[in-house]
Amino acid sequence: MAVGLPVLAVAGLAAYELAMPARFDEVGRVITVLALALGVAAADQWPVKLATGRKFSLGGVPSVAALLLMPNALAPAAIAVARLVGELTYSRRLGAAAYVAGASGLAALVASLIASPVAAPGDPAWLVRALASSVVFMVVSLGFAGISTALQRGEPLGPTLARTYSASWEPALAGVGAGGSLAVLLLTAPLSAFLFLALLPMLNRMHRSLETELKAREELHSVLQAQRRFLTDVSHNVSNPLSTIRANLSLLKHGRLNSAAASALTDATAECDRLMELFRRLLTLAETDEGLPLKKCRVELATMAGELVRLYAPTADRRRIELRTEAEGWPAVDADENLLRQAAANLVENALRYSPQGHSVLIRVATQDRQAMLEVVDHGPGIPPEQIRRIFERFHHGPQGRGGLGLAIAQSVVERHGGSIQVESEPGAGSRFRILLPAAQPASRAPAHAVS
Transmembrane ranges (predicted)? Predict the structure, then answer.
């Protein structure tokens, strides 16, 4: 409702100008209407900004104050109607304008006095700002009325403003007749009173709800920041001892061990590697959550795909899986190369982990709809439809164990780069994970090639 005040101001001022005797040509009248409309719209924002100390808000007592300013926007229309009904003289129309503007300011003043203890108990500064804002609004709105009068009649600005301000405080209200006063009051006062009495409880509840929500968000942000700092500290403090343990385990492998000891040592080394990888991923996740600046450079996706094939070739050979890449064109992106490589590597690791022996995993790069695409296709057990929405949740594990942190990291990294990650899967037929990122430039026309 309060947002519509500028619109009401434009409509009311237009009616007011049309009701006045013609003094300017059409262009001059249009300019006057627009100038006055902008002035009233700005004046309507003054009480809210001064009373709250912040930008305009739809919630709480600021909206009530804005609603009480509505007579100022309706005043020109009310004066025009009064003129048509009672044939007011020009001086009486001026008096009516001053009357309504002054009444609006006084109404806002009274509303501030009533509502400020409800909106901000124990905050006397709010009451002081409310009083000041009401006075400022009244002075500004009357000033616009005086400027309009001076422009229309071609009179000096100073004396006209003086008459306007004095008229707003005279009991006789500049001689507005009974018909004019009645028309103005019937069109403005009941509406303001109704809106104030009917909407104050609702708007006050809205204001409190918004304040509660804002406070909850701030507390949640503080908790998340504390968790990230804790996670980073723990990861750093644990990673260093794990590295030492891993190095000592490697030294023990060179000694003479029986089969049981060698097997136990191999298991311990594998678990140590798993923990180190977990903490590495936790650090990456904390880094992406913290929103640290990305170290962007130009990344050729075909080159990255080839590097991933060479990196995971030993794993693929052990599992008897064919790992290959295909490139359609030469798509490139501006990205943090280390983070993007880790996101893609997580997809490749998942594909190798869940693909059965004798099958293949494909890393495909191309350009799709002006976006650079990196796609990982496997022929594993697939993902049930009801699980697809949850696989990117942290530490979520599906029926086949797919999940953990790898997919959560991949999604976080891709979204940090302004891209998206998509998944298509059919149970028993495999899965297709697709990373889409803004392309650095259109892909060049290079022949498709494959690396195995």
Answer: 60-82, 94-114, 126-152, 172-200
User: What pLDDT does residue 274 have?
Assistant: 72
Q: CA 204, 209, 210, 211 torsion: positive or negative?
A: positive
Residue 278 one-letter amino acid: L
Scan for tokens 């500049």, then name that residue.
Answer: 174
Tally the C-alpha atoms within 13 A of residue 50's C-alpha that lie toward its C-beta.
Answer: 22
pLDDT at residue number 362: 94
Listed residue (105, 94, 125, 128) closest to 43, CA to CA: 105
Q: For 354, how many CA atoms within 13 A lie in the half-sphere containing its CB? A: 26
Residue 348 banded pLDDT, cuts 50, 70, 90: very high
Rg (CA), the chain: 36
Of 21, 22, 23, 72, nearest to 46 (Cα)?
72
Which residue intervals of 120-177 are DSSP H helices? 124-153, 157-169
List of residues 6+ apart from 383 with CB closer than 8 A: 391, 398, 400, 402, 423, 425, 427, 431
d(CA 62, CA 75): 21
Q: Strand, helix or coil at 370?
A: coil
- The pTM score is 0.47
Q: Which tokens is 79 given?
A: 């004066």
Place of tokens 């009904």: 85
Give me the amino acid identity at 449.
H
Largest CA distance in the chain: 115
Report the alpha-carbon distance of residue 218 to residue 246 in Å, rounded: 41
Distance CA 239, CA 237 (A): 6
pLDDT at 376 over 90: yes
pLDDT for residue 57: 38
